[in-house]
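Subject: Sanity check before I submit

Could someone independently write out the structure tokens for this chain? I want to compare against mine line by line before I put it in a report. The sequence has 53 residues.
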Amino acid sequence: MPTPHPSRITALIIATANCPDCQAEPGAPCHDGSRPRGDHHQARQQEAERATA
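---
Independent answer below. Compare away.
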């Protein structure tokens, strides 16, 4: 099976996990201060991996 596109992986991470770094809820994008990030924090990716394992 081919690897999913990176934007799909990011969408899954944002949809399934809280971010321990910026306290973003599932469904909300990560942010730095009050500015939204174009990606997610690494810690959120680790949370999503634990949640989906």
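---
OP: Matches mine. For the report I'm noting this point. The radius of gyration is 11 Å.
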